[in-house]
Amino acid sequence: MIHLLIFSMLITFTWIPELGGQSQNKDIFAPETIQIFTDRDILISGEDVWFALNCRNEQTGRRSAYSKLAIVEIIAPPGLIVSRVKVSLDNGRGCGSFHLSDALPTGYYTLRAYTRAMRNLGSNSFAYHSMLILHPEQSIALTNDIERRLPTNLHSNEIDIPLNADYPQRSLVECRFMLADPSDQFNTEHFAVSVRLKTPKLPGIAFDSFTEPATLSYSPETEGMLLNGMIRSKNDNSPVAGETLMLSFIGPTAYIYSTQSDEAGRFSFLLPNLYGQQQLVLQTMDRDANDFDIIIDEEFHPIAEQVSGKVVLDRDLFRAASHILENAQIAKAYKVFQPVESYLLDSTYQDIPVYGGADATYRLDDYTRFPLPEFFYEIVPEVRVPGPFGNKRLRMVNDWKIEGLDQSPLLLVDGVPVLDEHIFLKINNRLIHSVDIVTDPFWMNPGVFDGVIHMKSFEGDARSFDLLEGTLRRSFLALLPERKFNPVDYGDGQTNSRPDFRNTLYWNPDVQFNEDGTALISFYTSDVLGTYEVVIMSSKGTSRASFEVRREVVNE
Question: What is the predicted pLDDT for the residue at 165?
Fold first, then answer.
């Protein structure tokens, strides 16, 4: 059968001048707000910070199904990005975690979250959340008073949190929450729950937003992750209309997408759920594209400069920070014994190349390593190599007869199309691990290829050949895979002699309530004595309850 490329859709947008942005023609632009919930607000360099996002429709107040993607950043005091991730939004719910570098200096940091749709309304519409990060080897100032405090959090009386006054070390705590109003409207809320050492509130940190020009506009990501840009002529910077562009991601599995530029030279790709840091290659199907410039839109919002001040703590906050620091240092010493991190991935299509299954696969180490023209001629019966020496071409051996089709196969190296057959055949065969062969014609809008030849190198980095001039290769930040919070379990008589100095006992970014308005969570206390709090966070506010962990007395 003919192999069909699943290519990205061309998304049409409707201009909405009063919003200064764009929206899909099927939808009305939906202003959104985001809330950020974290497991803790005081952290130590080298620890993990867990977060949840609650994206809501600003007009209805309900969880938003509009944007499917949010960007979350950690901003250092001078106004520098120290970490950044993209998070999937499922009906307004998103979650993830950052691993803080051991080298982060002591200071007040800011978590910033926004969707692409929110960029049209300016950074004043973004969500901001302050964190205090302490470096073990840096000193901090101590004072009896701090003038600026965080605004008082909303305290919700809608949730009853029944707890005992105290619990022994390493004991099971079961807590059933009860909503005062279990109606459907309230059940649409997004609840995040954290159980952590109780600490005083942080001082408020001023954060200046960036003033954007009024001409900026951003297409909302209402279907998934987008990659937008434009193509223009190098000669006069004029837009190039009707040009076919091919987007590929470097790696052993071939992901290739195509689209065409519009009258303004603009293009858009709707991407699948790719994860982590990727390397993309963007090129035109025109082999003589030396006169083109391909420009990808800036994906991330700029940051205003901040004045970094000295970290000053009052005595209560200083004592709490010292306690957390001591626990973190002990926990770090035993981190090697912790369970392996696990992730939740939507990997349905992650291992399926764009051409589906190969008709044949050849490992070059199984044969004498001839130069590639001879390898295809001598070893691969599915491929013909017609033409005199120095002008060799590749053609498939198949029964397809398509009138006017005198096209070479789609030539790929590590998932990247190679449009020049001579470049492809001159690749050093010692760099190639294996070759996939697809003999059927392969359709990639708007053209047809006579099959597919995909060579995979040992390194898998597509550096075994030179890209044509005008091709764009760059890194691309894809989605953050959702990481599971691994709770400690001392049940069923399990014993563990290793010290347990967790600062966060429990984290759930999306607690589900039953129809009767109840939800049950359970966790084990650690070896750390002190006051803990259960914190339930939602758009309605924050509900809290405290308990003590005491030393277990053994009767002799």
Answer: 85
Mean pLDDT computed over 178-192: 70
Q: Which residues contact 405 (CB under 8 A, 6 or more apart)?
A: 441, 448, 450
* CATH code of the domain occupying 31-210+302-345+492-550: 2.60.40.10
Question: Do 415 and 254 contact (CB within 8 A), yes or no?
Answer: yes
Q: Using one digit for the tens of pLDDT, what is the confidence trace for 541-550?
A: 888 899 999 9
In the DSSP assignment, the letter for residue 155 is: B
Give residue-wise pLDDT tens across range 443-473.
887 778 889 999 999 999 999 999 988 899 9
Residue ranges in 334-474 assigned as alpha helix (H)? 372-379, 421-425
In angstroms, the Cα distances linking 515 to 21, 184, 554 are 40, 9, 42
| Closest C-alpha to 310, from 495, 108, 482, 125 | 108
**DSSP per residue, 471-496:** -EEEEEE-BPPEEPP------TT---
Do 191 and 537 touch, CB atoms closer than 8 A? Answer: yes
* 274/268 Cα distance (integer angstroms): 17
- What are φ and ψ of residue 116, in 5° steps? -65, -35
Specify the pLDDT at position 517. Answer: 82
Which are the contacts of 58, defined by CB distance < 8 A and separation ≥ 6? 30, 31, 32, 33
3-state secondary structure of 141: strand
Confidence (pLDDT) at 209: 57
Q: How many CB atoms lie within 10 A of CB 420?
A: 15
Give residues with Cβ within 8 angstroms of 134, minimum separation 6: 42, 43, 44, 45, 106, 140, 321, 324, 325
Handedness of CA 461, 463, 468, 469 (dihedral sign): positive
Total Cβ atoms within 10 A of residue 87: 22
Distance, CA of 37 to CA of 58 (rounded, Å): 18
- 3-class DSSP string for 8-66: CCCCCEEEEHHHCEEEECCCCCCCEEEEEEECCCEEECCCEEEEEEEEEECCCCCECCC
Bridge partner list, 293: 232
**CA 383, CA 162: separation in Å to the nearest integer?**
72
- Do residues 63 and 54 make contact, with C-beta atoms less than 8 angstroms apart? yes
Which of 120-134, 203-217, 332-346 comes out lowest in average pLDDT?
A: 203-217
Delimit the CATH 2.170.130.10 region(s) of the chain: 360-468
Q: CATH 2.60.40.10 residue ranges in the chain?
A: 31-210+302-345+492-550
The reported pTM is 0.85
CB 436 within 8 A of CB 456: yes
What CA–CA distances, in Å, run from 491 to 169, 171, 174, 494, 495?
Answer: 13, 9, 13, 6, 9
Comparing 345-354, 478-487, 494-503, which segment has the lowest mean pLDDT? Answer: 345-354
CA 149 to chain centre: 32
Domain 360-468 has CATH 3.30.450.20: no
CB atoms within 10 A of CB 369: 13
- For the record, the structure tokens of 460 come out as 């898998």
* Residue 336 scores a pLDDT above 60: no
Lowest-pLDDT range of 6-20, 258-272, 420-434: 6-20
pLDDT value at 224 more than 50:
yes
